[in-house]
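Q: I'm writing a short explainer about Peroxidase for a general audience and would like to include a description of its predicted shape. Could you first generate the structure from this sequence?
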Amino acid sequence: MSFAALRASIRRSALATPTRAAARPALRQSAVRRFTTETPAPKKSNAVLYGGLGAAVIGGVAFYVYASSSDTAKEAGSAVRSGAQAAKAAVNFVPTKADYQKVYDKIAEVIDSAENYDDGSYGPVLLRLAWHASGTYDKETGTGGSNYATMRFHPESAHGANAGLNVARDLMENVKKEFPWISYGDLWTLAGVAAVQEMGGPKIPWRPGRIDGFATQATPDGRLPDATQGADHLRNIFYRMGFNDQEIVALSGAHALGRCHTDRSGFEGPWTFSPTTVTNDYYKLLFDEKWVWKKWSGPKQLEDKKTKSLMMLPTDYVLTQDKSFKKYAKAYAENQDLWFKDFSSVVSRLFELGVPTAQFTTSEPWIMGSE
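A: Of course. Here's the predicted structure. Afterward I'll give you a sentence or two in plain language.
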């Protein structure tokens, strides 16, 4: 079919489809967590704006209906949805910040519901989900990143670096059922923000606008860090995303949280003694402890000589060996406030990788939770 004919078909579909105001699903009032300000009252519904978004949005909706029925048109349909999102952003389309705050509060409840999972918190695995969904970005091709949430699809969901993240995706699927209007990309990155903030870390500026894509937009394997590698590998991976040495070291501090599992990555153990609290202990331990190679049948990793209860990966230890990395790691070990500031900035950027600026529903990012 020629493009002109396709466009004519789209126009006919749009004109034949009756417009109607789309009602937002009812949102259950979540209990506001401790240390969180009262959720602001939602603004008066802007549903009437559905009818005033103009031909761009109407055409986008019509094209999406067409694209949904044609495998060959799905990528084009996703592109039009991106344009529709930009049009919505231009008129301050609902949902409001108050609506996203309710999602945040629900995620915060999920984080604390872990009980017997790992160290009693789902926070670390939710942060890893947001990180891995965003860290596939390639600045040269403009592919990957958080925009399409392609980890929902095989084979990306089965990439080695994503082992075990089905736990986090399943948790967020339950939240998605309660708030079906939020995109997966927005949901997952908001979960990463909640994880950092609810575990005592800095505020992470965040804004919505990601759209859901298709399996054809899934990224190839090998775009996420391989923990067995050294400095050159880290630079290849992070430079591809657009980060520099200082930002590589700042992002590595996320290893203050969580632990490795032999049935996932093959590695085993936590990086710090407080794996559910965001601190600069990761950097302090790198320099304060004596690290030796662990004698076991698993992949190469280090353990602290004193207690043998902590571990570091080769990609962690290289921060103390590479001259450029070391100066930043040392600075963060000595000043937690400095790391919090840099970590907040770089994580906010990480979570926006691959998202066209025009899609965001607000020009300035929000601070969710307690302010």
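A: For your explainer, you could say: Residues 231-350 form a domain with the Peroxidase; domain 2 fold (CATH 1.10.420.10).
Q: Perfect, that's easy to follow.
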